[in-house]
Each structure stands twice: as C-alpha cells, then as structure tokens.
Specification:
six-stranded parallel sheet; five-stranded antiparallel sheet; alpha/beta
Length: about 600
C-alpha cells in the first residue's frame, strides 16, 4: 500500500503531465502557489528535462548579505553535518551566493543541476523551485518533489523564505533548505523561516552601525555652513535643504555610481553631469563603520552649466530647482521624468521668449519633436522649418521664412563645416533679429563649432530613453495613437520592453511598435508580434552574422510556439545548441498556449 506522501506525489505528477500536454489547469490537489508558478514557467518556455541556467563566477563575496548569512550558515552547517540536507543563500535576483551541504551524495546531485554558487535559480530560468517561487511571490513556500517544474529536480524537496531588509522592507535575497524527498520534508518550512529571520537580524545590526556612522559624518559636515551635502548608504539617503532642493532620485543614483568608481581615494573631486544636464562638482569621502564600508559623504558645488564649460549656459533646471518634478505636458509628447520635465520647461520658455536654444542628446531622443511641440505651445499657426546641416545649407537658410511666430530648427549643428560657419552664423543672427526662434540640435554639446556658439543663448540636454524608463507606458500609449485607433499592447509586452537599453531611443521604440502593430494577429500587440531583436538581451554588440542568427533562432522558436525541441528539429540543430544559443543571445521566449 502506498504511503500518503507517495500517493500525493503521483497524483501531482499526473496533474503536471496533463497540464504540460493540454495547458489545462491542474487538479485541485496542487497548491495554488505551485499552479501559478507552473503557469508562469510554461508561459516562459522553461525546459522540463534539462537545467539551463546562467553562470556568473565573479561576484562580491564580501557583500552585506553574504557576510550576514555566514554565521547563520556556519551554525546550520554544523547542525546538518552528515544529514541529507543543504542550506543555500541567494541574492534578490536568484544568484546563488553560498551553499553548505551535509552529505557528498546530495552535493554531487546539486552540482549536476547547477544549484551552486555563481548560478542563477530564479524562476525565469529553472521554473518552479523553492528559491524562484519565494523571490517571485515574496513569501515563504515549500516545493515538494514532483511539484518542481523541471524533472531533474523532482527527487528533492525544498523550502525557501525571502530575506528582507528590516529597515526598508525590501527583499534582499532568499534562504533555501533542500533535502532528499522523505518524511522530514514537512518540517523544512519552520527551519528555513527561522534561519531567514536570523540573517535579517544580523543585517539589521549592520544597517544600524552603517546608519549611525553616516548620520555622524553628515552632522559633522552640515554643522558648519550651508553648502549642499549628501550622504548615500545602501538603505539611507541624507541630504540637507541645499542639496535636496536640486537633486532627484535619479541624481542620487548617478552620484552614488560616481562615488563608487572613486573607491577608497580620500577627498577626491569629480565633476558629474546630472539627469537634467546640469553639472555638479562632487567631493567624495567614504564613510566606514564597525561593520565595514557604510557609504559615501558627498560635498557638492553646482556649476549651473553643462560639463563643457566653454559651451552655452544650460537652462535644464530653474534656479530654485523647486518645480522641475511636476509634469510639463507638451502637445503630442509624453513623459513626467524629472529630466524630461526640465528640458520641456526650458524649451517652452525659450519658445515663448524667442531665446535661441541648443538641444543636445543621443540620436532618436526627440530633439526636433521637442522643438516642434514647444513651438506649437506658443499658439503659432506656422509649422517649424527644419534644415539639416548635411544639405545645401546656405541655400536652405536663405529660403527659410523668418519673422515673429516662425521657428527654424537647424539639425546636426556639429556637421556645419568651418567654411560654412561665417555665413551660417550671419543667417542665424539675422533670423533671430527678425523674431525667429532658432533651435539647434546635435548629439553632444561640445560639438558646436566655435563660430556658432554665440548663436545659441541657452542649451538643454534631452535624456536618453534608458534614463527615463518610468515614462515607457505613457510613451507606448502616445506612439500607438500615431499608429492607429484601438491598437494597444498586451500586459506582458511592457516588461519585455523595459529590459532593453534602447540605443536608438524613442525613434527605435516607435519603429518597433509600428512593425509589431503592422504584423499583429489580434486587436493588440502580443509578445510574438515584436521584432526578434527585442526578445534578446545580449550584453554586447552583435555582428551582422550574429544578429541574423539570433533573429533566425527567435523566429523558429516563435513558429514552434516556444517548443525548443521542435525549433531545433526545424533548424537542423540539437536542443542543447538551442539552449546554448539562447543563453548567448539572452533570448527569453514564452510558450504560446
């Protein structure tokens, strides 16, 4: 007669197979959390018979999480010596950071399925497993034997619990206990939650020590004078009023990255360009506590112009800096990011006051569109005239209408040759004198020819799309309105769009949405409608041949509805090669139901 646990395992195994074959909801005996994870795993196209996970051997072995977990794992390792159990700690993204195993046989099995330091056990790579589900659902869970999505994990059971930062509440990682299937598996949940709580308490002690050190350093510096001061720790930001009035959350991130690059160099100075285009001179000092490095103390000096000090004065921020976080809508455009708000305000003010403006930013960020929108906001009936420096520039400038209510956009100012500069400068000065609003655009402000610098009284930086991804939903809606009424994106499309750094910026996003809308099979854009390149998140630039191979692979997977074996057969390659190529190109494709 079968034991209750064995009978349950077989029932769940049958429900899983039926689910995989028919895409029907499994039987009610399967816990809800496991059913939900199975659905996510199938949707992501996770393999069921081979564990394929990314590997990252280089990581910070002295991170706060690893150091806080070490004494807890040391204690558990002694208690579990010789037993068929293993304890594992991962970071918040599922990367395994430490592992302690009680017996060699279990250790060898875990090595075979890559459940070892340096590998990633997030649900998106492995499917249903204790670590992945705990991080996905942000709560403790137990995954028993046949509940695992991948068959190679079904001879073990695991319990996992998220490790939270006691100060911020943010999930910092996961604590996992894995053992062979057996009667003891039902006691795992209590043990793993207790261990996670112990790690959280150690991390809190670290945080308290760090915060005390940061607060003391901050008070010492701000006690004298009123210069802008910022203290940045992992869980704490301290700023006096002189700094908080002029900095956004994105500015904090940029300054923290710049401080980290300076490392332990004492009292080092560095100039940093903020998200609104403004430059700040930063003097940095690392703050240490009894628990290690606590963070950085930054003394700031705002220069009120871009980092290219010979260039025009920036108008990206108001002098008070108080109103830049409020939305500043322009007709036909979308976005509420602080840096976008800043440049929108500057463009609107310059259009109203007819102040010549230089807009600089990466290709495709919307510099010309911004000029057109600011022009429209003035109520002018005319349409801006755009002249490209790559054309017959002199003739084009002569033919351009000038006068009040007119706007002239000179694209690619940096392409104006030295021979053309004198005549172009005279034409721009004459147009300005007649009331024409002059806007110049280029990629980088330092590229303005010296003879043309006086033609632009102000300059503003247009942020790259990757620096304003919070605006992505509004941008997608705005761009789809241009495509046609009634076109929308499926909910799962936006997370995929957020994965990309968009080197072509808004122009690239619009092109991708137009192609997807043109080829869509339903009333909305689905994941399979997106261009193949968007299903890849390669960390490097691809050659033309590699891009072609990636697109062919993505297309085959889409046509096979995520079935990797079928895609491999159609391409004439092995399934192992499919998995390897998917890792190489960062391809993640959901299976179609």
């Amino acid at each position: 007669m079968l034991s209750d646990s064995t009978a349950r395992d077989r029932t769940i195994a049958r429900a899983r197979l039926k689910f995989l074959e028919n895409a029907e909801l499994p039987a009610a005996i399967v816990p809800e959390g496991i059913r939900n994870s199975w659905q996510r795993s199938k949707y992501l196209g996770i393999g069921t018979d081979e564990v394929v996970v990314p590997y990252q051997p280089d990581y910070d072995r002295e991170s706060r999480l690893v150091r806080a977990a070490a004494p807890v794992l040391d204690r558990l390792e002694q208690a579990l010596a010789g037993s068929d159990a293993c304890v594992i700690v991962t970071d918040r993204k599922g990367w395994v950071r430490d592992r302690r195993v009680g017996e060699k046989r279990l250790s060898a099995h875990l090595d075979r399925v890559h459940l070892a330091p340096g590998f990633n056990y997030a649900e998106q790579f492995v499917g249903t497993n204790g670590i992945g589900v705990a991080l996905e659902e942000r709560r403790p869970n137990v995954v028993l034997g046949t509940e695992h999505f991948n068959e190679r994990l079904q001879n073990v059971s695991c319990a996992a619990a998220p490790i939270r930062n006691s100060v911020t509440g943010r999930v910092e990682g996961a604590m996992n206990l894995t053992c062979w299937n057996g009667p003891a598996r039902t006691l795992m949940a209590a043990l793993v939650q207790e261990a996670a709580g112990d790690i959280e308490r150690v991390m809190y002690e670290f945080s308290s020590s760090h915060q005390r050190a940061l607060l003391e350093a901050f008070q010492q510096v701000t006690h004298y004078g009123d210069r802008p001061v910022l203290c940045l720790g992992q869980d704490l930001v301290l700023a006096n009023s002189a700094a908080s009035a002029r900095l956004t959350g994105d500015d904090h991130r940029l300054l923290h990255e710049a401080a980290a690059e300076l490392g332990h160099a004492p009292r080092t100075r560095k100039q940093v360009r903020l998200t609104g285009g403004e430059a700040v001179l930063m003097r940095c000092r690392q703050v240490d506590s009894s628990a290690g490095a606590a963070g950085y103390l930054l003394e700031l000096a705002f220069t009120d112009h871009p980092c290219d000090q010979a260039g025009p004065r920036t108008g990206a921020r108001s002098r008070s800096g108080q109103d830049l976080t409020r939305p500043w809508p322009l007709p036909g455009l979308a976005g509420t990011d602080p840096a976008w708000n800043a440049v929108s305000r500057t463009a609107s003010r310059c259009a109203r006051e007819r102040t010549p403006l230089l807009l600089h930013g990466e290709a495709g960020t919307g510099k010309s569109a911004l000029a057109r929108a600011a022009h429209a906001l003035t109520g002018a009936a005319s349409v801006p005239v755009t002249v490209d420096a790559g054309t017959d520039l002199t003739a084009a400038l002569r033919a351009a209408p000038t006068g009040p209510g007119r706007t002239l956009v000179l694209r690619n100012v940096d392409a104006v040759t030295s021979e053309q500069c004198p005549e172009v400068a005279r034409a721009l000065d004459a147009a300005t004198a007649q009331g024409t609003w002059i806007v110049g655009t280029l990629t980088r402000a330092p590229g303005v020819p010296e003879a043309l610098r006086h033609c632009f009284a102000e300059a503003a930086a247009v942020p790259a799309l990757r620096h304003r991804l919070a605006d992505l939903p509004a941008l997608v809606d705005c761009l789809l309105q241009r495509v046609g009424a009634g076109v929308e994106c499926a909910p799962e499309v936006l997370p995929l769009l957020r994965r990309h750094d968009w080197p072509g910026n808004v122009r690239q996003l619009e092109s991708a949405l137009r192609k997807a809308a043109a080829g869509r099979r339903t009333y909305r854009i689905e994941l399979g409608d997106l261009p193949p390149s968007l299903h890849s998140a390669s960390s490097r630039s691809l050659s033309a041949w590699e891009a072609s191979e990636r697109d062919t692979l993505v297309q085959a997977l889409l046509e096979a509805e995520g079935n990797k074996l079928l895609a491999a057969q159609r391409l004439g390659i092995s399934r192992t090669t499919i998995y390897r190529k998917m890792r190489t190109y960062g391809i993640t494709l959901p299976a179609r139901h």
